[in-house]
Design brief:
The chain is 50% helix and 10% strand. By secondary structure, the chain is of the alpha+beta class. 32% of the residues are buried.
């Protein structure tokens, strides 16, 4: 019986290791995204390589210029697909098994919607996949700003997520990286008078329907979140740990094989 268990753990170890290695040969970004799949037209104008170049802090950057570039980069990289319309595997909303078999199994077996259609907390993996909605875009922006010590707060309204950024001492502006809009007001000013946002969304040629929808949302009660860790705490740490565990587990299974084989 021990021998059977020993070789069972050896097989599991080799399969897990093979899955991990195969991940180096696949791209996380979906093979094809068409305009008909998107909420906004021409929504993905940057490649992942473009995005990596744009998110680097340069010596000439100020907090304001860096935040502005990040906002347009995240907006131009993340394609806002109709999130619930397609099967979860079509655009890699379910994390592929070769990317992370723990997150894959969570998406397939847990019956938890957040794992079936996954939102990466890691901005680099999110930008590599290249799809997302307002929550994804705001988490990306917030985390990248955190990496450069630019103070920011994730703001969630019912149905929309944005980021308030301190672009200079005691000066805060609201950034909407899903719509690629920057609002030169604090969140309190916008919440008190939501029609302030109209000309800034009109400038980006959004429809009257889209803008009125946002105006109504910005009037609602909002919540503040101190970074991605606060916004999705348990899932943030689970994702972080899973990327270590996918490599640790094959070696643990192999050690079990050796122990039982003796």
């Amino acid at each position: 019986m021990k021998k059977i268990f020993a070789y069972f753990f050896l097989c599991i170890s080799l399969i897990a290791l093979a899955i991990n290695i195969s991940g180096f040969f696949f791209k996380l970004s979906p093979s094809e995204i068409k305009d008909e799949n998107l909420r906004f037209k021409n929504d993905q104008i940057y490649t992942y390589e473009d995005a990596l170049e744009n998110i680097r802090w340069t010596e000439s950057d100020s907090k304001a210029t860096y935040a502005q570039r990040l906002n347009s980069t995240v907006a131009g990289r993340l394609a806002h697909v109709h999130w619930e319309k397609y099967t979860p595997t079509r655009f890699n909303q379910t994390v592929p098994v070769w990317e992370n078999y723990i997150l894959y199994l969570a998406g397939k077996l847990s019956n938890i919607p957040e794992f079936e259609r996954y939102h990466f907390s890691d901005p680099y993996r999110s930008l590599e996949r290249g799809i997302g909605i307002c929550g994804d875009a705001s988490m990306n922006l917030s985390k990248l700003l955190d990496n450069e010590d630019v103070a920011n707060t994730i703001i969630s309204f019912p149905g929309h997520v944005i980021v308030e950024v301190e672009i200079a001492e005691n000066i805060k502006h609201v950034f909407d990286p899903d719509f690629n809009v920057i609002l030169p007001y604090s969140i309190e000013e916008i919440n008190a008078q939501s029609d302030l946002i109209i000309p800034f969304y009109e400038e980006k040629s959004y429809s009257e329907k889209e803008i009125n929808n946002l105006v109504n949302k910005y009037e609602l009660e909002f919540k503040r979140w101190q970074g991605v860790e606060h916004f999705i705490t348990k899932k943030y740490y689970f994702e972080y740990a899973s990327y270590y565990l996918i490599w640790i587990l094959p070696f643990l299974f192999f050690l079990l094989f050796l122990k039982l084989r003796k």
